[in-house]
Amino acid sequence: MLNIINDKDLANFLKDSPLYSKVKFFEGQPKDFEFNIHEFFEDKAYKFYCPSESDYHTFKIKPTSNQIYLLCEKAIGYYIDDSEKINHSFFFNGICQSCGYRMDFLVNIFSETPFKSDELVLPTTYLKKIGQFPPFERNPEKEVLDYLTDEDKDNYKKALSNLAVSYGIGAFAYFRRIIENEIKRIVKDISQLEFENADKVRNAWRQYEQNHQMTNLIDNIYDYLPRSLKEMGDNPIKLLHQQLSGGIHEHSETECLDKAKRVDILLRYVIKKVNSEKYELKDVKNAMKGLRE
Q1: Pairwise CA distance, residues 88 & 71, whole Å
Q2: Where are the alpha helices (DSSP H) in the chain?
Q3: 3-state class of 141 per DSSP?
């Protein structure tokens, strides 16, 4: 039975995937079934930032030619490279449904195993985005960027630039540097908040200032963190700190890329929660002060 990428996963691939990352296109494609590639992509929708209107809008895919790309046994030679693997690139446009702005994609479909004439199905086939305009970008969120030191603002921008071209080792290296620099500031900021059991977090912080054992500090404060940092049922600060253990080259490029993406999500979450607690407390104190006057 044919298992093909669904519309949601395709939309996420088009709007969120950096260059050179891959996603499974289909598997279980019978050789005698004619699959029209352009027809499949026609009118598929996704959300993207429209530079013309400076806002996010729905785009729909429009193939750039009337040529029909049929993937089937009788036409398989057109898609096979010298290593007998499926390898074909094609171009299409995404059209903004609000203003007609056109963005361009160059996509490669490929298999990682050779086509075998004696098998009943085609090899599992993947999509890879190898070109895009406007380019894929991960823009730093202002709230996160404002929290970081000047050094780590630069590190964060470099990490996102590496993510944009799927350079996992580089992105993960920059995120590790950010965690190493910022983890202490994050815990210190938490210790200065007002919440239930805050005094126990402050006591743990004072102990850290004497023994400089960050692992013990992070383990000791989890039970007393603000509820907003415990609602996931795990210790997000500990998970971030654990990324500093071991060497980067213990992981493959793909593993580093996955880790970098997840660290980015978790780091942004923690910073936003700490900021929210900090500024909410500040607003409450200002309100109370104003009412007393």
Answers
A1: 10
A2: 7-16, 37-41, 142-147, 150-164, 168-191, 198-211, 214-221, 236-242, 253-292
A3: coil
Per-residue pLDDT of the chain (293 residues; tens, 9 = 90+): 568 999 999 999 998 888 888 899 998 888 778 888 888 899 999 999 888 888 889 999 987 666 677 887 788 888 899 999 999 998 899 999 999 999 999 999 999 999 888 888 889 999 999 999 887 767 778 888 889 999 999 999 999 888 888 889 999 999 999 999 998 888 888 888 877 778 888 888 888 888 888 888 888 888 888 777 877 777 888 889 999 888 888 889 889 988 998 999 999 999 988 888 776 655 555 665 665 66
Residues 6+ apart with CB under 8 A from 2: 26, 27, 28, 29, 30, 33
- Name the β-bridge partners of 26: 4, 125
Contact 179, 263 (CB under 8 A): yes
What six digits make up the tokens of 144?
A: 């996160």
Pairing of strands 35-36, 45-50: unpaired
The number of angstroms, rounded, from the C-alpha of 90 to the middle of its chain's C-alpha atoms is 25
What are 89's strand-pairing partners?
A: 108
Give the distance, in angstroms, between the CA of residue 179 and the centroid of all CA atoms in the same chain: 17
Alpha-carbon distance values, 286 to 224, 276, 282 (Å): 26, 15, 6
Cβ atoms of 219 and 232 closer than 8 Å? no
Q: Give dist(CA 251, CA 207) in Å, integer.
A: 34
pTM exceeding 0.90? no
DSSP-assigned letter for residue 80: B
- Residue 234 CA: distances (Å) to CA of 19, 113, 186: 32, 39, 17
Distances (CA, A) of 108 to 111, 210, 260, 281: 10, 56, 24, 51
